[in-house]
């Protein structure tokens, strides 16, 4: 029986696991990313993790089949260079190349939303479906696309960037420079920003303000809590978010038409309260109402999705 | 050597061809669709065409391998029912089922934009590429998606409806009931409608009006001609169309990231004059400018694309 290493590089911590063929995490490490110390330091930490895992495997008389790495950025199609990583402030760093130079083991690197999509496809709500799309709603919006049971990132590694699909006109521009990106309507940042903008424009009769000392303290969790208790501004914000998520899902259906779309990430923790609003709105945006369309479900895997998905990357390539 | 039948059902004519393995059309029929006489009549004409082709093949001592049919509508995933066909006013007609009942030959039915995409993929500008997207700009906007050298229409037959991707807010609603569909910005209908709306709102200092007796006579060809001659309103309309086509293409790149995107259909006849404006605008909407993205080219096949693509449908399924 051979083992695989899955590494999940986040802005705060690096999590890694040694997985057996049944996807059990038989050995696990978590260390601070120390991103302020720069790429070379982070890279040396990743190398130490892999070396630790390798000696663990050899004590068990087992071999490592592959190393998979997930990170919040984009990787070129050869998996050599991390072109961009917002969280770590990396630009064009040769992580794949450096690690391949060091280890004689197949190494794959992918965007973390794509990795989470793989985990959902292998073990979660997307399990067993041929075509599926994972959307993660957090401070940004990421996507993972599975087509014919394989991860799909396009011909140049640019695909599955669902958060930057332009879907309307918004009162502020996206970090990417465009106006109207899905991310600026449905990320937690977007919802918070919408509420603050409304308050600054005079919508002050809201229970949100009774729960904070200053508008800086407003967060998405509070907005969702106030919405559930019937607050008007909070519901306006949640309904706007639900509308644009429904539009984003309908656009995905009009193009990819998957078997299932799974919603994950922090915002999705609001659960059925939010998802039911999206499901209510969705049919109006579907073109052919006579045909079935994909199910919309909450993702079910927790924090280990990043490690598990990364360990399976080779299989899904 | 076996033969394949390709049938292209349009609102005005039905074109059909008997093709050899080198995709030569060795026998050809074109008859009026007579759509006003209803589905049963049109179906009987299609049956006559197939019977004529079959007896032609048997005179040549050859067998028919498959029948492929393209039409401007949507077909269920089993290829049994034409769910919707705007041009022919068909709703849920069992064309596939009826033809299979009659002929013991594999029959595939697909959307005509998908069929044109297959033809471009086999013989045109998309030839040799693994992942490609065809966009047809006419009175509506259609799409054909090729992934891994196969036609991709999704899990329920709803995919590749690129014209109904929501990309913004528009001054009029789409036929489908939504606001902001790509089709309402970049179809010939959309460009004409935008110009007429501007004129009705007072933009009357335009050479377009010197070329017509009434605003009803304005068409997209005239708008493009006036734009090339420097007319301000015409250029405003063409630039708006180019902007939204660039957004539509960028959205496709952000999701599917194909090797190539081919633009076909009537509006594309404006050629490089129009395409150059789209190409100039596109980079600003691309997320990661460090990576290559797919080429944008004009489709190169003419009227026979519908017949040829239909005859190849079996191979691309």
TrEMBL record, chains A, B:
Matches recorded under Pfam families: ROK
Stored Gene3D superfamilies: 3.30.420.40
Recorded coiled-coil stretches: none
Signal peptide as annotated in the record: none
PANTHER family: BIFUNCTIONAL UDP-N-ACETYLGLUCOSAMINE 2-EPIMERASE_N-ACETYLMANNOSAMINE KINASE, ROK (REPRESSOR, ORF, KINASE) FAMILY
Family, similarity comment: Belongs to the ROK (NagC/XylR) family.
Protein name stated in the entry: ROK family protein
Organism expressing this protein natively: Tissierella carlieri
């Amino acid at each position: 029986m051979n083992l695989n290493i899955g590494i999940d590089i986040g802005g705060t911590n690096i999590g890694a696991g040694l997985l057996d063929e049944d996807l059990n995490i038989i050995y696990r490490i978590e260390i601070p990313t120390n991103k302020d110390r720069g790429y070379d330091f982070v890279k040396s930490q990743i190398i130490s993790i892999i070396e630790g895992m390798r000696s663990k495997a050899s004590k068990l008389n087992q071999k490592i089949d592959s190393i998979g790495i997930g990170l919040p950025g984009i990787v070129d199609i050869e998996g050599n260079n991390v072109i961009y990583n917002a969280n770590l402030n990396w630009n064009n760093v040769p992580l794949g190349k450096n690690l391949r130079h060091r280890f004689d083991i197949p190494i794959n690197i992918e965007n973390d939303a794509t990795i989470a999509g793989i985990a959902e496809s292998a073990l979660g709500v997307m399990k067993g479906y041929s075509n599926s799309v994972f959307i993660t709603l957090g401070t940004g919006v990421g996507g993972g696309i599975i087509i014919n049971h394989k991860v799909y990132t396009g011909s140049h590694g640019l695909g599955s960037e669902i958060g930057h699909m332009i879907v309307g006109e918004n009162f502020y521009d996206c970090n990417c420079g465009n106006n109207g990106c899905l991310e600026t309507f449905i990320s937690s940042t977007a919802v918070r920003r919408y509420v603050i903008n409304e308050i600054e424009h005079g919508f002050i009769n809201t229970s949100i303000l009774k729960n904070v000392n200053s508008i800086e303290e407003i967060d998405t969790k509070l907005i969702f809590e106030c919405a559930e208790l019937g607050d008007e501004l909070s519901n306006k914000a949640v309904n706007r978010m639900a509308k644009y998520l429904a539009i984003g899902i309908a656009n995905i259906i009009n193009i990819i038409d998957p078997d299932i779309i799974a919603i994950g990430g922090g915002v999705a923790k609001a659960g059925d309260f939010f998802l039911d609003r999206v499901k209510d709105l969705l049919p109006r945006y579907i073109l052919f109402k006579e045909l079935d369309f994909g199910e919309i479900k909450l993702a079910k895997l927790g924090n280990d999705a990043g490690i598990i998905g990364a360990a399976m990357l080779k299989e899904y390539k």
